Amino acid sequence: MINDLWYKNAIIYCLAVGTYMDADGDGVGDFKGLLRRLDYLQGLGISAIWLMPFQVSPHRDDGYDIADYYSVDPRYGTLGDFVEFAHGAKQRGIRVIIDLVVNHTSDAHPWFKQARRDPKSKYRDWYVWSKSKPRGANRGVVFPGVQKSTWSYDREAKAWYFHRFYDFQPDLNTSNPVVQAEILKIMGFWIQQGVSGFRMDAVPFVIATKGANVAKPREQYDMLRRFREFLQWREGEAIVLAEANVLPQTDLEYFGDDGERLHMMFNFQVNQHLFYALATADTRPLAKAMAKTKPRPATAQWGIFLRNHDELDLGRLTPAQRQKVFAAFAPDPGMQLYDRGIRRRLAPMLAGDRRRIEMAYSLMFTLPGTPVLRYGDEIGMGDDLELPERNAARTPMQWSAEPHGGFTKSARPHLPVISGGPYGFEHVNAATQRRFADSLLNWTERIIRMRKEVPEVGWGDFAVIPTREPAVLVMRYAWRNNWVLFVHNLDAEPHEITFSVGLDRESAKSGDELINLLSEDHSRAGKDGKHSLVIEGYGYRWYRVGGLDYLLRRSDIDQE
Ligand code: TEU
Q1: Which of 281, 412, 466, 560 could form a disulfide with 471 if both were Cys (CB 3.0 to 4.6 A apart)?
Q2: What tens digit of pLDDT does each residue of 43-68 get?
Q3: How far apart are CA 65 and CA 67, in angstroms?
Q4: 3-state SS assignment for residue 210
Q5: Residues of the chain with pLDDT under 50
Q6: Phi, psi of 540 (to 5 degrees)
Q7: Taking a C-beta distance cutoff of 8 angstroms, is the pair 150, 139 a contact?
Q8: Distance between CA atoms of 384 and 140, rounded to whole angstroms?
Q9: d(C-alpha 418, C-alpha 376), whole Å
Q10: Which residues line ligand 1 at a C-beta cut-off of 6 Å?
């Protein structure tokens, strides 16, 4: 039964078809190429792929401007190619979730074209209009510096339209029941093509009231329950993973008190404080963020990530905290974006320091929730700051030392492959790393395998165990009489820590022994029941408490 909720203990891998693998040699990645790479992904051990938008689009926002929801952009292949890919993934036991971008369409969408052309069109009310320029049109822009307003005048419509994002992304009037019905239809369509759910884009904006008279948008949370109900009627295992960068006090509104709304949300709160911890070696604000985001229904799950395709958004930190992260990881203003974020990949932010990169991923894999990896992170890819805005961290996957990193046979990839320097494809590529047992790729494969064998992280109850050392985070998970414990040192300096596993009296004995899951370096408690260990700079430890092995007990558990 526990495996029915597959997303509770999964490894999700995010990729963009266009930058993954080009099979037909036109410089753009495609579904045929991705299909060829499924064995690589299966080898890595991931459980699900999150596909970024691949539908027909003018590509002014990397596909987040969709012009036909029921299609595959011809540059990536055909709907038939999508189905071949989906089938290939299914054969390998890999689930597929796809981006669901329904806060807005592209202005090239036929719905918008008809809506702007004819006030009597049935599509007019699918968008959000105003006869005059609304007050506060300059407030609430998502991309400061490149987007000036959230309302633009449309000459053809002779009216102003609302766009939370770029002006070529008119917002759908999601309060309109007909639009809501269309959203369900889109979900139903892709479910029928074999996907296991959706990464739902910009959820707070999807459910917000929109309009010229809306001074303070209100979230219509009940819409989320309706999305979920529909999904579950159509396909029991399908999930919604929400992109909702919200404050912890509203988390339960998104999950639903009884888990009746969204299955998963990205934990932006933890993400931002995790980067603060990496930058300063002070884990206390991270522990606070973990505590604040702890309450969630039993069936709900957090998506835990380090970097994604957008800028690393630090908007939830205090200005002083944000400055410290900028100073550590993006000192040059060209590395920063939208006054709130960093447009770099993880490896260069951590100066390519292998110990630190491993420690950061180890932490990502052991924080409460389901880890979401980004393509290329498994080989430590870098960024190209010459590219505009968020494109810096969206360069093609580096497969080999062949021209263009083996990504394409074309002389002109649509985005340049990183070449030369420490992160160039000549050094950083999957083929070379496959050959070395100690490569980051092989390390990632091993850590994924181990993570899957530690379901306590996905299912269990966690506690942060106090030590006197703020640079070291000790987390303990309990689930069905099994305990695991993780130690991470975010500092470059070694630290000695003393802690007690802190189990109740009945189980206390098993706390005497910590079995290291990654090496022979086990730990025995002293007479006082406390463990003492010296952990090297950027060190990490995964322990099973008392040596009880979940895998050995698994047959008992499966009965339940
Ligand atoms: O982003 C939605 C969003 O709310 C942004 O604030 C996001 O957190 C980030 O700061 C944008 O850089 C989503 C997608 O992730 C993004 O790539 C799209 O551009 C955006 O929606 C519009 O569809």
Answers
A1: 281
A2: 999 999 999 999 999 999 999 999 99
A3: 7
A4: coil
A5: 555, 559-560
A6: -150, 150
A7: yes
A8: 29
A9: 12
A10: 61, 64, 101, 142, 165, 201-202, 243, 245, 309-311, 313, 390
Atom of ligand 1 nearest to the CA of 341: 10
pLDDT tens-digit readout, 1-51: 788 999 999 999 999 999 999 999 999 999 999 999 999 999 999 999 999
Angle at 228 between CA 230 and CA 189, to 5 degrees: 50
Catalytic residues: 201, 243
Integer Cα distance of 334 and 343 in angstroms: 9
Q: Is 389 left (phi over 0), alpha (psi -120 to 50) or beta?
A: left
Q: Rounded to whole angstroms, how far apart are CA atoms 20 and 417? A: 11
The pLDDT score that the predictor gives to residue 547 is 58
Q: From the CA of 166, give the closest atom in ligand 1.
A: 22
Give residue 559's pLDDT: 46
Q: Are the C-beta atoms of 425 and 404 separated by less than 8 Å? A: yes
Q: Which residue lies with its CA nearest to atom 3 of ligand 1?
A: 202
For strands 336-337 and 95-100, give the pairing.
unpaired
Q: Which two tokens stand for residue 44?
A: 């890595």
State the distance from the centre of ligand 1 to the C-alpha of 526, rounded, in angstroms.
51
DSSP assignments along 10-43, one per residue? --EEEE-GGGT--SSSSSS--HHHHHHTHHHHHH
User: Between the CA of residue 239 and those of 54, 117, 134, 228, 340, what are the distances in Å?
Assistant: 19, 37, 37, 8, 30
Which residue matches tokens 């390390």? 443
Tokens read off for 507: 């189980």
DSSP at 311: -
